[in-house]
Design a protein that fits this description.
The chain has 14 helices and 5 strands. The protein is of the alpha/beta class and 281 residues long. The protein has one domain: Rossmann fold. The protein has a 5-stranded parallel sheet, with helices on both faces. It is globular.
Length: 281
């Protein structure tokens, strides 16, 4: 009887060991999902950015290993240089899927007021400069990523118009320049990446999807972007679902109520850091 118990115990232990190995192997075999770019990818519009931004939602939904190397205020030039940083290039090499949000700050940080005044007066020469610089940097970004990792699936988001009421048409000129480059590059290099059409999804919904800072996606906006990315990945055979799994609901700052002091201070510190960079760049 005792020998039977011993045999049973050994079998049970073996089963547990096999199951544990299967589970750990499954976790180790999860796809590596990397976010690169600006404050939109970082999740700036949320108090709990890293826990609830669209990248985290996508990762949680599909069971990806999640890494977010996006940085507030980054332009295409900054991202191109960032790819030479050791830990960033290592992250790119190990990634299976890379989401990129870049271009908005190429418009916002290049003397926004002068751009808007120029657009109002019909002097659009600054937009030509932005287009040339962004085109060069963007081409360099894609080429650099491809040289580091030729197998990763790359998703590039289009830039949206964040204006809720002022300078809507002028903002759109900047949006058109950036998105024109993104779409044009893909037209000249078919299959280089897939485009996530955030612009069309946000069109007419600025009041609904944009945070109180008037620039970044709020929790609802992040959910919209997550769903777009999930749909794209599912169509590519890289995702398990198109319906977002939200483990950590995004926290919008709409006043002190419902938000901790630390969350509010953290949000405004990130916001100040971003706009200080814009003002003094």
């Amino acid at each position: 009887m005792k020998s039977l118990k011993k045999i049973s115990a050994v079998i049970t232990a073996a089963v547990i060991l096999v199951c544990s190995f299967a589970i750990s192997s499954s976790a180790a075999g999860a796809k590596n999902y990397l976010l690169l770019g600006d404050s939109i990818a970082y999740g700036q519009g949320l108090l709990n950015a890293q826990d609830a931004c669209y990248g985290k939602i996508v990762a949680d939904t599909n069971g990806y290993n999640y890494t977010n190397y996006a940085v507030d205020g980054y332009t295409s030039e900054a991202l191109l240089k960032y790819l030479d940083v050791d830990f960033v290039s290592a992250g790119v090499r190990s990634a299976d899927i890379i989401s990129i949000s870049i271009g908005g700050n190429d418009f916002l940080t290049t003397n926004l007021l002068a751009l808007l005044i120029g657009a109002e007066t019909g002097n659009d020469s600054r937009f030509d400069k932005i287009e040339a610089e962004f085109s060069s940097n963007f081409s360099g970004i894609i080429s650099k990523i491809k040289s580091l990792n030729s197998h990763a699936a790359i998703l590039v988001q289009t830039v949206y118009n964040p204006s809720k009421f002022l300078f809507t048409e002028d903002y759109q000129k900047g949006v058109n320049v950036i998105n024109g480059v993104i779409r044009g590059y893909l037209g000249a290099h078919p299959g280089a990446y897939s485009i996530v059409e955030v612009e069309s999804a946000f069109a007419g919904h600025a009041r609904e999807y944009i945070a109180i800072d008037t620039i970044h996606p709020n929790s609802k906006g992040n959910l919209v972007i997550a769903r777009l990315v999930l749909q794209k990945l599912y169509a590519m055979g890289l995702g398990s679902s198109t319906e977002p799994v939200v483990n950590n609901p995004g926290i919008d700052w709409n006043g002190i109520s419902g938000s901790s002091f630390a969350e509010i201070i953290g949000y405004f510190f990130r916001l100040f850091s971003k706009y200080a960079g814009i003002l003094f760049a």
